[in-house]
């Protein structure tokens, strides 16, 4: 059984570092440091998982299993803790900032200079604030300006309008809808597409909105658009 008190090394295809500005810190997510606080942040709000292919995590063991099997075992993933620096909080485990959620890079392919922003889990009290835009912006700046990536993508259930609009506001371009991309658990039927074949009901599926941002778009002005979005106060 995994133990939240035992840290494990970050395992990612690129060297990882802390990212920050005056509003937000992104710190590599080490369960020994952040898991209990994240569990406490998310557990009261299972609706945060409505469109996600994981969770809600009902026990700490479920959360730790997910973190280990994705954020650690797969080198294409790196999960960051999002810390809100505007709250003037100095925590005894991680220092400056109040835990606001998580954000990750996933499906990273170094040989293709590409990655994907995902696992954006922001606590209720931090939604519709500066937190998401600054967390996404810091990752984009790192990906394009430091790692030299050519493509960063964003996927979402096409029904998840808030997620799609968040990406568009940050400068991602809607590339299309990938039909029947995923099989969804039966409990997610309300946000999936019904399947009935040969007179029998099957587990639902998901149509995914695909959005992308590209290195030439970034250098042609999207970097300034992202910086403006991060700096907004309303």
Automatic annotation (TrEMBL):
Occurrences of domain N-acetyltransferase (ranges): 23-173
Xref: InterPro entries: Acyl_CoA_acyltransferase (IPR016181), GNAT_dom (IPR000182), Ribosomal_N-acetyltransferase (IPR051908)
Domain of life of the source: Eukaryota
Pfam family name, one: Acetyltransf_3
GO MF assignments: protein N-terminal-serine acetyltransferase activity; protein-N-terminal-alanine acetyltransferase activity
Gene3D superfamilies, A to Z: 3.40.630.30
Protein name in UniProt: N-acetyltransferase domain-containing protein
Species lineage: Eukaryota, Fungi, Dikarya, Basidiomycota, Agaricomycotina
């Amino acid at each position: 059984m995994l133990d939240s008190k035992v840290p494990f090394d970050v395992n990612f295809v690129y060297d990882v570092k802390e990212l920050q500005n005056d509003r937000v810190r992104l710190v590599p997510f080490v369960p020994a440091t952040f898991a209990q606080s994240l569990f406490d942040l998310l557990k009261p709000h299972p609706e945060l998982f409505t469109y996600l292919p994981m969770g809600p995590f009902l026990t700490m063991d479920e959360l730790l299993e997910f973190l280990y099997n994705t954020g650690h075992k797969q080198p294409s993933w790196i999960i960051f803790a999002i810390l809100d620096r505007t709250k003037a909080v100095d925590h005894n485990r991680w220092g400056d900032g109040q835990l606001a959620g998580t954000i990750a890079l996933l499906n990273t392919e170094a040989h293709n200079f590409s990655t994907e922003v995902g696992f954006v889990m922001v606590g209720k009290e931090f939604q519709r604030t500066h937190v998401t835009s600054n967390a996404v912006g810091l990752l984009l700046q790192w990906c394009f300006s430091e790692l030299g990536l050519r493509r960063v993508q964003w996927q979402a259930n096409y029904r998840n309008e808030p997620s799609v609009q968040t990406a568009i506001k940050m400068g991602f371009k809607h590339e299309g809808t990938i039909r029947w991309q995923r099989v969804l658990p039966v409990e997610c039927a309300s946000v999936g597409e019904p399947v009935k074949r040969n007179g029998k009901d099957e587990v639902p599926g998901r149509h995914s909105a695909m959005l992308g941002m590209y290195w030439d778009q970034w250098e042609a002005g999207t970097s300034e658009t992202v910086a403006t979005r991060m700096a907004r106060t309303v």
